[in-house]
Amino acid sequence: MPKKLEQFTYTVWWNIIIITIGSFILAVGLKGIAVHHNFIPGGVFGIGLLIYYATPVLSAGIIYFLLNIPLFAMSWLYVSKRFFYYSFYAMFMATLSYELISFDLGIQDQLYAAVASGAVCGVGSGLVLRSLGSNGGLDVIAIMLNQKYNLGIGRFAFMFNFVLFSGSLFVLDVDLVIASLILVFILSVTMEYTMTMFNQRKLVLIISDKSQEISKEMIDHLKMGATFIRGRGAYSGTDKNIIMAITNNIMMKRLEQTVFSHDEHAIFIVENTFNVLGSSFAKRKIY
After folding, report:
1. Dihedrals φ, ψ of 220, to 5°?
2. I need a labelling partner for 56 at 20 to 30 A (CA). Which of 123, 208, 228, 250 fits?
3. Quick one: CA torsion of 109, 114, 117, 123, rounded to 10 degrees?
4. Which CATH architecture has domain 201-273?
5. Sheet of strand 267-273, all strands in order from the earlier edge strand to the far edge
6. Residue 38 host element (H or E)
7. pLDDT per residue as tens digits for the range 217-230
């Protein structure tokens, strides 16, 4: 990524842009799909829709806005004022977009609608959470738990909604609850993927007798960094330099070819990482 563009991604304008786009996409998934099938998308907006379905005096968007007031007070006290301002803007844009959108995407099948709505809402929520704010609601509590206990934001949302829908079985049609759970599951997975797709890396460990040659080609030709970790074979007792490197999906195949072209008996271990911070990778996001 060019240096100027990378610096722009940490500015106020970048945050406003992705919050605006993400909030609109979220509203499309809710107003364009979920509402037409009476889905409950979970979280605070799900509670707002339940109230709307029962007593349609106020729109679900307005109810969502009102329910968020105490949660935003928590974000002001326990997260940061910057997080509060960005999140308030996101909630305002989501509410405004929801109120302005009046179309139906026309998906008739309930299962297809649940999957599509979850995917669209997940992309919208994930984009907003890539900023320094959130869409409010459960996201505020999720951010607090993520900061304190490193609990995944999407996982927290799914756990909360699982409890919510378990109780809803007593008052809602079973098919509707199951379809709504599918929506929430797709939403949580898509949201976490959207949050990490630009920063997700692969952690690679390479065990080889030719670690010096491999690391030299990685540095000279692949332009990758590498770190030696000292290891010892439990059976042979021989000391070895284990190569540790961080890469992405694009470079993975080239690295694999480099390793096995030098040592066909090498061990090539790959693990997914949620995020990599520091050095030439992403900067730490402080709310």
Report:
1. -80, -40
2. 123
3. -140
4. 2-Layer Sandwich (3.30)
5. 227-232, 239-247, 201-207, 267-273
6. none
7. 888 888 888 889 99
Residue 16 in contact with residue 89, Cβ under 8 Å?
Answer: yes
Q: What single string gives the DSSP state of each residue in 104-138?
A: -----SHHHHHHHHHHHHHHHHHHHHTTT---STH
Going by C-alpha positions, the residue among 240, 285, 246 that lies closest to residue 266 is 240
Cα dihedral sign, 102-107-112-116: negative
Phi, then psi, of 269 in degrees rounded to 5: -110, 130
Nearest to 187 by CA among 123, 231, 245: 123
Q: What is the pLDDT of residues 53-102, one digit of tens each?
A: 778 778 878 888 888 888 777 777 776 777 778 888 888 888 889 888 88
Domain borders along the chain are: 3-196, 201-273
Residue 277's pLDDT is 54
| Helix 60-78 and helix 81-100, axial crossing angle in degrees, nearest 10 | 170
Token pair of 282, please?
């992403």
Query: CA-to-CA distance for 264 and 259, rounded, in angstroms?
Result: 8
Residues with Cβ < 8 Å from 74, sequence gap 6 or more?
140, 141, 144
Record the tokens describing residue 148, joined without a space. Answer: 């304190």
Distance of alpha carbon 238 from alpha carbon 68, whole angstroms:
60
> Looking at the predicted structure, is the pLDDT value of residue 163 above 60?
yes
Separation of alpha carbons 158 and 232, rounded Å: 42
